[in-house]
Amino acid sequence: MRERLGILLLLILSNSIYAQQNNRDLLHYYSWEEAQLISKDSVEAISFEKMKLNTLPDLLWEFSNLKGLKLNKNKLDSLPHKIEQLQLLKYIYLSKNEFAEFPKQLYSLKNLELIDMSRNDLSRIPIGIGELKNLVYLDIWDTNLPGLPSDFSKLSQLRYLDLRGMTYSPSFIKQLEENFPNTTIEFDPPCNCME
After folding, report:
1. Selecting from 3.30.365.10, 3.80.10.10, 3.40.50.300, 3.40.50.620, what CATH number does the domain 28-157 have?
2. Which of 12-26 are b and which e, b meaning 16 or more Cβ less than 10 Å from the residue's Cβ?
3. pTM of the predicted model as reported, rounded to 2 decimal places
4. 131-160: pLDDT as tens digits
């Protein structure tokens, strides 16, 4: 019996460590339909994936205990300022939307640990991202970003950064790796372009 309990605890611990290392949240995501049928205080995560949304429902801001929000594969091009009410939010998934600029509204969400903005055609990340002191995981794969803002180096907790799908000079890559020695940074091969 003790051996089984030990194995079970080891499995739970190893899954938790794996999740932390890969910064994948372990929250249960309710669909929007399910979330509306449950006490708002007990819902920690909601998924709006593949709903073709271009705006978010006003009722969403009443879910004040949200820690996770999946908005992947929609038609969003901005986030409302009301998202700033979700101060407990740790994980936000915004991949495959229509954002042209990294949403500044996220900068007020100081508990964010994971942001997935991959596969949006971003022209820039505005200054202010350095305020996200708890950010551990940032996926901006295939966003066409020409560069990163000057305060990006303030992301001292960052442990994973995905920059694949874009081409940067060898000097940019070297500088980023020097600024983030404890961070796994995913790149495509550097260009042979002039610096």
Report:
1. 3.80.10.10
2. eeeeeeeeeeebebe
3. 0.85
4. 999 999 999 999 999 999 999 999 999 999
